Amino acid sequence: MGLPTLSAARALKGGEEQKLSFEEFPDVGLAKTYSLDYLVPDSASTATAYLCGVKGNYYTIGVNGHVKKNDCEAMQNEENHVSSVAQWAIDAGKSAGIVTTTRVTHASPAGTYAHTAHRDWENDGFIKKNCGADSKAQDIAYQLVHGKTGKNFKVIFGGGYREFVDKSIDPKGIRTDGKNLIKEWEDDQPKSLFVDNLDDFHNIDVEEVDRVMGLFQPSHMKYHLEDTENTQPRLYDMTIKAIQMLEKNENGYFLFVEGGKIDLAHHDTQARMALDETLEFSEAIQRAQNYVKDDT
Questions:
Q1: For 232-271, what is each residue's pLDDT tens digit?
Q2: Which one of 35, 43, 45, 95 is the catalytic residue?
Q3: Global pTM?
Q4: Is residue 290 part of a domain?
Q5: Cα 167 to Cα 103, 120, 130, 260, 273, distances in angstroms
Q6: Which of 209, 247, 272, 274 has its CA 20 to 30 A from that of 91?
Q7: Taking a C-beta distance cutoff of 8 angstroms, is the pair 286, 235 a contact?
Q8: Between 235-246 and 271-295, two packed helices, what is the crossing angle to 10 degrees?
Q9: Distant-in-sequence, close-in-space partners of 58: CB < 8 Å, separation ≥ 6
Q10: Residue 93: inside a domain
Q11: Mean pLDDT of 275-296
């Protein structure tokens, strides 16, 4: 989401004089983006930079420069792991969660909880293929459910159901290890709730659950413009529900919110989709601001 996208989104919103919600912030800045080994980085190494404060190598997440792309052994060395702002919040007694329109195991949200030598290692099949069947390297979905940071998230909203379930259990799944990580997540802690459709999402009673996971598509969530039958929550719906869950903690919270399909639309040269997703992201931020202001 670069400056040309913002300019075009303003025009789509109503004209050049329009402003997106986050452009009204008191402080707005630009950042140089590069990884240790590439001048033009990807969203894995950049997620490590802005979420963990450490530059990493191309395609790696949550690890320092000692871990190169595809290095199965180095990624398992905890000395090479870097912690994220989400973990810092948890360590400080705050709650944490993630909201995205991509798979929750995709590069950007994974930057809050995962440590991996390759952003695509979202399920066990990729680990077996690249590291060997006997490798103890953990895939990204497994880390979200069982890892130090991910298992303590109070909110997980987005797409990516397929990464958590073996294909023998559900045809929509693509795991090969026989696991149903969603069930393992539900069984790990009491008062855990999993939802996968819009009706169940709207029926979430935040006072009755301690944590919630919502995976609304097998892969990425649909573009807003494609969801003509309203089959999934919008980004602002997920954002407000996440805040309602997290604000129960009097110590405060950290919430990662990503309009991830802006980038995916650009990759596919779908300008109209990219700009609409930018407006969806702006709306989510605006509603979050309004909600927090009303609450305080």
A1: 999 999 999 999 999 999 999 999 999 999 999 999 999 9
A2: 43
A3: 0.96
A4: no
A5: 17, 18, 20, 26, 31
A6: 209
A7: no
A8: 30
A9: 35, 36, 37, 38, 41, 42, 44, 45, 69
A10: yes
A11: 90
List Cβ neighbours of 57 (8 Å cut-off, separation of 6 or more).
35, 36, 37, 38, 45, 65, 67, 68, 69
Residue 220 annotated in ligand binding: no
Cβ atoms of 156 and 144 closer than 8 Å: yes
Residue 213: per-residue pLDDT: 99
Among the listed residues 117, 122, 109, 191, the one whose alpha carbon sits nearest the alpha carbon of residue 150: 109
Count of structural domains within the chain = 1
User: Annotated binding residue at 283?
Assistant: no
Calpha distance 296→212 (Å, rounded): 24
Q: 202 a known binding residue?
A: no
pLDDT bracket for residue 295 (50, 70, 90): low
Closest by Cα among 137, 105, 135, 131 to 120: 105
144: its two tokens: 């979200």
At 272 the three-state DSSP class reads helix
Domain assignment present for 109: yes
Let me know if residue 8 belongs to a domain. no
> Is 106 assigned a ligand-binding role in the annotation?
yes
pLDDT at 51 over 70: yes
Mean pLDDT within 1-25 = 92
Domain of 101 in residue numbering reads as 84-258
pLDDT of residue 296: 47
The DSSP letter of residue 166 is: B
Q: Is 168 annotated as a binding residue?
A: no
